[in-house]
Every structure is written in structure tokens, then in C-alpha cells.
Amino acid sequence: MPFDTEPSHAQAISHYIEAERRIRGWQKYEPPQVPPASRTQLITHGYPAERAAVLFHGFTKAPPQFIAFGRLLHEAGYNVLIPRAPHHGLPDPLTDAHARLTTEELRETAERALDMAMGLGRHLTVMGLCMGGVMTGWLAQHHTSIDQAVLIAPALAFKVIPLRLTPLVREAALRLPNIMRWWDATLKDKAPGSRHAYQRYATRGLGHILRLSSDLQASAARSAPAAKQVLVVTNANDERVDNRGAAQLVAAWQRAGASNVRTFEFPISDQLVHDLIDPQQPRQRTAYVYGTLLDLIEQE
User: Would the CA dihedral through 161, 165, 163, 133 be positive or negative?
Assistant: First the structure.
């Protein structure tokens, strides 16, 4: 429910109340086995703010990944929505539920979150990591209502898959029976990490993320992003994502005439891990990363 060009105070309050009502309904009807902390999160001042943010978590993670950063945004004046992606946030770290994840569910979750967040504040920032980065990119491509979109290490390509073979692997993952693979093939279920994260990933779910990535790349080849500003953040030390995927997306947007796309890369000397957001991940430098991200988004 977007604001009018110059909404009155009463209109803004009305839109906010409706947005909060719908978000609370979303939370209420999430699967009962999902712990409260892993459900869709709303960090609000209780009234429409000048700025609002939507934060999309990564593959096999859950909203707690972004809670600490979301609180920083809240302290800076934002109302913050952190949606839970379908089949994520379940208490069993060895679940195979995310094998049922589909491209359509990712799109629907992104669109639903954007629609609700429009009532939380006048200026809207959308941000996501990995899978969430692709969801953010999809929204940025199609929605003029977004003031700033921030794609962090978007899952457009992976280091374990040769770039030229990504389309083939994507189709194989979608057509062949699902396989559950360990994120850490050596330590397996003994690997350190977040309490809300899954320790394995589903190849079928990965295939659907790559399908949404492919759809985004194809759309970018036809037109510049609709969002007012886009920031693509990569990590030169990323152990999972192949940054050439992000480079291809930015190049496609530029060829389509985009003048509203910026890039930033954390240097390899920072030695950051792929999930540079979740404070429960080992070897984190969240104070540095959060400060840098806040500076980048405040530049706009």
C-alpha cells in the first residue's frame, strides 16, 4: 500500500496501521514448528518512519541472520522488516524441507514483503545477502517504489560450479532427484555456525535460486533496474559465491543504460567469510562490516 506523493499525517498513520496488521498476520500463520526468533521479524518504532528497510536472509539461514544489523538500522530511525523465506527457520538443522523451495515462492515472498513495507516508511531500502541478494535484485529490476536496493554477495554464480556450466547445472538440479549436501563436507554436523542455520543444502532449492538468478540476468539484459538506486556489494574473499555473476549483472544493467548502479567490494585483505552479516558465524568482523554498509547506504 504505497504512500501518495505527499501523504498527509493521517494517511501515513493509516498506511502504517494496515502494514503492521498484515505483517502480524503473516507472523501468525507461519508454521507452528518455526521458533518465534526465526519467524518473520518486525522491528518498529510503532509509527510510520521517514525510512523503512526490508532485509532478506540467505539460503539455509533465517531472520536472526539480520537481527543485529536490523537493530542498528532501527536505532538510525528505520522501521525494519525481516521476512522468513519459505521452508527456512525450522529447528532441525538437518531438515530437507528447503528442497521444496521454488522460484515462485521466492518471488512471492519478495513481492509480499515489499508491498507490506511500503506502509512502514516514506523512503524504502531493500537489502539481501546471497539468496536474499537475488530476491533484492529481482525487486530492484521491477519496482520504482524502491529508493535503494543493496545486493550483498548475490547468489548469481557459485565457485563450486564453473561459470560456463552454471546453466547446465541449474537445469540438472531442477530435473534430477534432490541431493542433500553438507556445507562443510569434512566436519558435517559438527561444523561451527549459527543455531538457526541448516547444516546441509538441497540441490533442488539451489536450482530454484539459480533459476531466479537467470531470470534476473535476462531481465537486466533488456532494461535498466527500476529502483532509484542500486548498490551491488561483493566480497573478494568470498568462499562460496563467484563474483563474476555479480559483475555480469552490473555490466548488463550498464549496457541497458543504467546510471543508477554503484558497486563496492570488500578487499581480500579483510579476510571476510561469505556470510559477513550473521554475528553467530565464526571469524566475523560485524562491527567493521555493519559500519561500512551503514556508510554506503547513507551516502544516498
Answer: negative
